[in-house]
Amino acid sequence: MNKRVYNLMDWAEIEAVTYSEEDNPKALLGVTSLKRNESLLQTYYPGAKKIEVMVLPKGKWSSLDMEDEEGYFAGILKEKAPFKYVLRRTMEDGSCVEYFDPYSFEQIITEKALKKFAAGINYEIYKSLGAHLMTVEGVKGVHFAVWAPNAVRVSVVGDFNNWDGRIYQMQRLGDSGVFEIFIPEVTEGAIYKYELKMRNGDVFLKADPYGFGAQLRPETASVVRSIDAFDWKDCEFLKKRDALWVENAPMFVYEVHLGSFKKPEDGREFYNYRELAPMIAEHAADMGYTHIELMPVMEHPLDESWGYQVIGYYAPTSRYGTPEDFQYFVDYLHSKGLYVILDWVPAHFPRDDQGLRCFDGNCLYEHKDPRQGCHPHWGTLIFNYGRPEVSNYLIGNALYWAREYHVDGIRMDAVASMLYLDYGKNDGEWIPNMYGGKENLEAIEMIKHLNSMFKKEFPGALLVAEESTAWPMVTGSLNEGGLGFDLKWNMGWMNDFLDYMHYDPLYRTHHYDELCFSMIYAYSEKFVLSLSHDEVVHGKGTLVAKMPGTREEKLANLRAAYGHMITHPGKKLLFMGQDIAEFDEWNEGRGICWDYLQYEDHSNMKNYLKDLIALYKSEPALYRLDNSHEGFEWINCISANENIVVYVRKSEKKDEDILVICNFENIPRDNYKIGVPYSCKLKEIFSSDDEKYGGSGFTNPRMKASKEDECDGRDYSIRVKVPPLGVSVFKIIDKPVEAARPAAIKKKSAAAKKSITVKKAAEKKAGMTETVKSSDEKSVVRKSEAKDDSSSKKKKERKNNTKNK
Predict the structure, then answer these.
(1) In this structure, what are the phi and psi dihedrals at residue 63, rounded to the nearest 5 degrees?
(2) Largest CA distance in the chain
(3) What is the pTM of this model?
(4) How many Cβ atoms sit within 10 Å of the Cβ of residue 43?
(5) What is the pLDDT, as a whole number, of residue 246?
(6) What totals of helices (H) and strands (E) does the chain contain, helices first?
(7) Residue 86: predicted pLDDT
(8) What's the pLDDT tens digit per position in 97-110?
(9) Which residues of 413-426 are buried (b: 16+ CB within 10 A; e: fewer)?
(10) How crowded is residue 748: how many other Cβ atoms within 10 Å of its Cβ?
(11) Between the CA of residue 176 and those of 81, 130, 209, 640, 710, what are the distances in Å?
């Protein structure tokens, strides 16, 4: 042992290294400058018998002194620091390896990035934390970084160091709580975890919260992956997306669970992302869907969670391939004109040991108090949205999927559980906010922050909320106090409509209000009418199975349900398998029953919905004014005994108006009298009862002309055939010249009143005897009449009205 070297040793710190309790290893390991142009080199590798050093570029190998039998070596070099060198270790078994010293490299994460992270505004934080392939000073390797402020020591362990936490102890960066290390020669595909040591001596392993890849379950380690190599070809598609105003465009979303869309026949569990892309694109393009919504693709340990209990927020699940495979998937769908939306789960995370729970031995990502940090019904943990680094983790993640995978939107899951502190909890199980209320102020701020930054960078991408309460202004502008989402799932319509449809027509009369009620609040938000996976699992049955009656009646009911959904204001969403009328409830363990299409009932339903979507996309009245009162007008919403509703859908152009008749009773009605807004003709352009869809053919092949004969509060009426359990769609043509509608219709009462005034003047000039009320006025009046069962006068009016028909 060299006495001079021995005297230079800081044995207390060396003990911290050998006992793997060091959070500042660079203070000891690597090169330290001495006087007289000399340097002290210290290195540690447990189990090494000999370590040599060579100064580059043309030095010679020289041995270092073993200062501790645990594998601690040191030596004085006749070189002035800094300089580049390489080490060579010889193990007990005689194996010899040359390598660059991880402690010879400077700090990589900048102080600016750390300060922004601490403030919660580093929107590219995933580029600093996690595992990144890079070249530093000409040396290839991987930079690892993790946030673990409460840990005594953090190490990177993996196949490359035999999972020994003593070897690559990471450097703590000031008081940021971030640890980092650059490890040369680690390559893509390397398996790794972080080993953390607590003050009480406990040691445990964690997967990388920012890792880009993960092992296939049941394995739990992270995998080094590159996300920068893919050659994107969707530049023009993204330009088109950013120019699209979704409010004025048709939008029909096809919801997909990748693992059960289709199962391989070669014994594999799953298809690869690259294999799934053309399968899904072919079906979606054939049907006419505009968007694909994927149930969560982020890494998750349990298949049965469908991805809603996420472990790796930055890692596409390895069930279907690598990150580059998923990039290919998105790029391919874009090449076929399809937009991609991801389900995203910022509301909660699971308790799995390798995940975020008690990440550094303390409640880091979650609240310590279970009244704030736990979902008692779900058994999951709630993010601490008030901690800047945690909100930054989530905001950066949403931006990451749009930025690195080019996705066209995020559908935020379980928003209601984020907004309310008492969601799913009993008295005493939650803590009020600072004002004594139940609103989660920190979550609200995080959501607004996320939405503002997301729309700033990706104005054409969508933000969709699954919010199941009456929280106001979910889709309201951030400038006006709203949450800033583009769209919200209409859970109220879904619940009411499915409840109405599951009754036998004989009993639907008593639930007629469930059919009409959605129009009372239809314009309070910008809605998506969703029939999602949640409605076809856990014993609820598929959509066709929910319908009453014989097999034929079930299919007719489903056709009518889809017809009403298409013609009702709002964007559309349908879960996979429901477009071919699957009778078997969805199960993530099996694929869609594609072989059903060999049977006429199922192929008819597929063709029916395909044609219905084509109608939806070809008729501007069915989508142009989804979010304006001007786009909808009730004709009849009081025929509860007949289970019939009649309404008009409108666009900005008068000659594009559509009249819709929905009959949810299994009785055909010939020569049925309906009111029309003005003197016109009706041409049936679609019927769910068409024989080619399996219907009875009770349609209107000829054009129908109106007569001056009062009905439904209108001066003019037309008599048509109304099929049983069917929807009939008519084009309104040959109308008189009327005042043009405003080019841009806004939700301001002053503008609405002006429009009504102009309309009244035009109708009076045309010689009409009764002014047509605006759609919103009629909704209120007729709703009031339908509910006032105690008024004998109104009962009599309804009876006479039915008799006339």
Answers:
(1) -80, 145
(2) 115
(3) 0.88
(4) 23
(5) 76
(6) 20, 37
(7) 96
(8) 999 999 999 999 99
(9) bbbbbbbbbbbebe
(10) 9
(11) 28, 15, 17, 65, 76
**Under 8 Å between Cβ of 178 and 117:** yes
What's the mean pLDDT when you consider all of the chain? 90
Edge to edge, what strands does the sheet with 39-44 contain?
30-33, 39-44, 72-77, 65-68
Query: What is the C-alpha separation between 421 and 624, in angstroms, rounded?
Result: 38
Q: What is the CA radius of gyration of the chain?
A: 33
- CA 586/CA 593 separation, integer angstroms: 10
Phi then psi for 804, rounded to 5 degrees? -60, -40
Mean pLDDT of 344-350: 96
pLDDT of residue 221: 97
φ/ψ of 677, rounded to 5, equals -65, -25
Please name the residue that has the structure tokens 């160091």: 161
Cis check for the bond before 218: say yes or no (omega within 30 of 0).
Answer: yes
- Provide the pLDDT for residue 377: 84
E-assigned strand segments in 176-227:
178-184, 191-197, 203-206, 213-214, 222-223
Task: Yes or no: say if 727 and 662 are a contact pair by the CB < 8 Å rule.
Answer: yes
The count of other CB atoms within 10 Å of the CB of residue 8 is: 15
From CA 220, how far away is CA 355, in angstroms rounded?
A: 9
- CA-closest candidate to residue 311, choices 228, 211, 425, 180: 211
Q: Is 553 among the catalytic positions?
A: no
Q: How far apart are CA 424 and CA 426, in angstroms?
A: 7
Write the CA distances from 794 to 33, 51, 508, 777, integer angstroms.
Answer: 98, 99, 21, 18
pLDDT (0 to 100) of residue 392 = 98
Question: What residues contact residue 697 under an 8 Å CB cut-off, 6+ apart?
Answer: 689, 690, 691
| φ/ψ of residue 446, rounded to 5 | -65, -45
- What gap in Å lies between CA 150 and CA 362, rounded to an integer? 7
Q: Which residue has the tokens 């503002």?
A: 452
Least reliable range by pLDDT among 2-16, 405-419, 610-624, 644-658: 2-16
Read off the pLDDT of residues 306-343 as tens digits, 9 standing for 90 and up. Answer: 999 999 999 999 999 999 999 999 999 999 999 999 99
Of 208, 255, 343, 413, the catalytic one is 413
> Which of 466, 535, 579, 657 is an active site residue?
466
Say what the pLDDT of residue 109 is.
97
Return the beta strands (E) in 2-129 as ranges. 30-33, 39-44, 48-55, 62-63, 65-68, 72-77, 85-91, 96-99
Cα–Cα distance measured from residue 40 to residue 156, given in angstroms and rounded to the nearest whole number:
25
Asked whether 755 and 654 are in contact (CB, 8 A), the reply is no
> Facing residues of 32 across strands?
40
Report whether 541 contacts 585 (CB < 8 A).
yes
Helix (H) or strand (E) run with residue 730 in it? strand 726-733
* Residue 255: active-site member: no
More confident residue, 552 or 762: 552
What are residue 614's DSSP bridge partners? none
* Six token digits for residue 119: 């403030």
- Above 80 in pLDDT, residue 755? no
**Residues 6 or more apart in contact with residue 685 via CB below 8 angstroms:** 615, 619, 729, 730, 731
Contact 380, 387 (CB under 8 A): no
Partners of 74 in the beta sheet? Answer: 42, 65
Provide the pLDDT for residue 309: 95
Q: Whole-angstrom Cα distance, residue 512 to residue 787?
A: 10
Whether 749 shows a pLDDT value over 90: the answer reads no
Rounded mean pLDDT of 666-686? 95
Amino acid at 667: I
The reported pLDDT for the residue numbered 294 is 98
CA dist 54 → 22, 44, 105, 738 (Å): 26, 16, 16, 91
Tens-place pLDDT, residues 427-447: 999 999 999 999 999 999 999
166: pLDDT strictly greater than 80: yes
